[in-house]
Amino acid sequence: xxxxxxxxxxxxxxxxxxxxxxxxxxxxxxxxxxxxxxQAPGKQRESVARITSSGRTNYADSLKGRFTxxxxxxxxxxxxxxxxxEPEDTAVYYCTAERVGGVIDWGxxxxxxxxx
Length: 116
Description:
31% of the residues are buried. By secondary structure, this protein is an all-beta fold. It has strands at residues 4-7, 10-13, 18-24, 33-39, 46-52, 57-59, 67-72, 77-82, 91-98, 104-106, 110-115. 0% of the residues lie in helices and 53% in strands. The strands form two sheets. Strands 2, 4, 5, 6, 9, 10 and 11 form a seven-stranded mixed sheet that branches. A four-stranded antiparallel sheet has the order 1-3-8-7, with no helix packed on it. A hairpin with a 4-residue loop joins β7 and β8.
């Protein structure tokens, strides 16, 4: 099992930017993919972005190109750059690691709050 530690969350005004980081306790290259999910109060957890071991990326349609996921295999770290933030982006953001076979490991989450 891998330990995933998110950082970079906080309070930001609408229109601002944040970069989330997810540091893994071991090499992330062995995972099928790394990703980010979020859960807003009273809502279901949803996938935000995903990046495979080959670097292929997928995003939630609702993000309209505002978020970018990237990875640094040498640092065992995954990033989520979030621009043009909106109050609707307020949520706890979770980092995930998808193992071969489909099991997903989760981080503890980091709070992102966007004020209007």
